[in-house]
Write a structure and sequence with these properties.
2 domains, Rossmann fold, BirA Bifunctional Protein, domain 2, 18 helices, alpha+beta
Length: 436
């Protein structure tokens, strides 16, 4: 029988390109990463802050920089029809620092306490070519230390990041460190860099040629191989640093050495955001290939003033969740098994024999949960043997069996799945399992 021509083809619906679903069995590593981050952040005095996933587009144009790749090519920007303004637009946040600083300014948090520490977690959005560990909707966990220009804070943020990775058991990561100076010392270096790059103009990509006049530092950030070959032959910024920047960078390097954190100087590391000043750094992992950054940060002493606040020193980092998890899976021996682990296993599984026992199991489950004991039961009408197989599959340590005999005696049969030992107990005895 032929299908009617009028029938519509069923469209196979999938997650949008550049996004991923995180399924229940994939949450184990996610939760481990989040838990370790929160523990390390809180030990260092960072408090959680959450901001909207979309902001006024002008925040990113002013904060990140109009000539950055993010603003020019990667932002998801929409006309805000609900605003009532003809030219109003909103942008899904491509990074979280600008939003946190906007909140710092909007609520005048500097008036209550100038120096504050924040940490955040959440999705970010960029129009990038999707690849392993790099998505269009991706997640970042980060910290911001606001209200000081002390170089010790630069080191603290790097140290916090390494503590996270060390606790997770990630080995093989490297720290790339640089300074990009400040508004005092960058102009002469900018001129020197531009003159040197013009001599190699024919070897640059078209985008970098356009950057020569608009933002020459972006050439150093280009990932095109021919541009990297040129940029790595350019003069380094170090001889152009003002005295303040020299002393600041020297303090960062000496303190990192003093607390036994190894790093490698990279004079061509500039990061992709215009708000950075002085210290910049990346933590990379070779298992990820060419785009190997798993965490990046630096100092941004001018950002708060750029968006309308008082001049305020600040430094922080953003840890890429997907890229960090990919590195962990590549390194940890247990990574493969963790991918398929359940995020939670009930403490107790309730098995019923007969319809009346099934009703009692359901009521018992509610009471146990009210007392903080995790439990589950069959909702598919399985036989008692099949219920026991499910308990084995879930890996529960204890099983409660209720049948006609248990109902009559008003007792519960408790089975230890490891030893096979069974005993008749009262309901109040079951609650003791929470403490075990």
């Amino acid at each position: 029988m032929q299908k009617s021509e009028g029938l519509k083809r069923i469209v196979e619906l999938r997650a949008p390109r550049g996004t991923e679903d995180t399924l229940p069995q994939q949450w184990t590593l996610w939760r481990r990463l989040e838990k370790v981050c929160r523990e390390v952040f809180e030990l260092a005095g960072y408090q959680e802050i959450r901001t909207p996933i979309f902001e006024d587009t002008r925040l990113f144009v002013r904060g990140i920089g109009e000539t950055t790749d993010i603003v020019e090519k990667e932002m998801y920007t929409f006309f805000d029809s609900a605003s009532g303004e003809e030219d109003s637009s909103i942008t899904l946040r491509p990074e979280n620092t600008a939003g946190v600083m906007r909140a710092y300014v909007e609520y005048e948090l500097y008036k209550t306490q100038k120096f504050q520490k924040y940490h955040y977690i959440g999705p970010q959005f960029r129009k990038e070519r999707p690849q392993a560990g790099r998505l269009r909707q991706f997640h970042q966990i980060g910290i911001e230390a606001v209200g000081s220009q002390d170089p010790l804070l630069d080191v603290e943020t790097i140290s916090v990041a390494t503590q996270v990775y060390d606790r997770l058991g990630l080995t093989g990561y490297e720290i790339k460190l640089n300074t990009i100076g400040c508004e005092k010392c960058r102009p002469p270096y900018r001129n020197t860099l531009k003159e040197a790059l013009i001599q190699h103009k024919k070897n640059l990509c078209q985008l970098c040629i356009s950057r020569l006049d608009r933002n020459v530092f972006r050439v150093l950030d280009c990932k095109q191989e021919q541009c990297r070959e040129v940029s790595h032959k350019m003069p380094a910024i170090y001889e152009y640093l003002c005295q303040e920047c020299k002393e600041h960078f020297q303090a960062v390097k000496e303190t990192l050495t003093a607390i036994d954190i190894q790093y490698e100087l990279d004079p061509f590391l500039v990061r992709g955001l215009d708000y950075y000043t002085k210290t910049v750094y990346e933590i990379i992992h070779s298992s990820l290939g060419a785009r190997n950054a798993i965490c990046a940060g630096g100092r941004y002493d001018n950002l708060i003033a750029e968006i309308g606040g008082p001049p305020t020193g600040a430094v922080g980092f953003a840890l890429g969740v997907e890229s960090s998890l990919l590195a962990l899976r590549n390194v940890l021996k247990e990574g493969a098994s963790l991918l398929n682990e359940r995020t939670s296993t009930p403490s107790v599984y309730l098995i019923s024999i007969g319809q009346e026992a099934r009703k009692e199991c359901f009521k018992l489950a509610q009471r146990l949960r009210e007392h903080g004991l995790s439990c589950d039961l069959d909702y598919e009408g399985r036989s008692p043997k099949a219920q026991m197989r499910m308990a084995n599959k879930l890996g529960v340590k204890k099983v409660i069996l209720i049948g006609p005999e248990e109902l009559e005696k008003k007792l519960l049969k408790l089975k230890d799945m490891a030893t096979g030992q069974e005993s008749l107990v009262r309901e109040e005895d079951i609650l003791q399992l929470k403490a075990q």
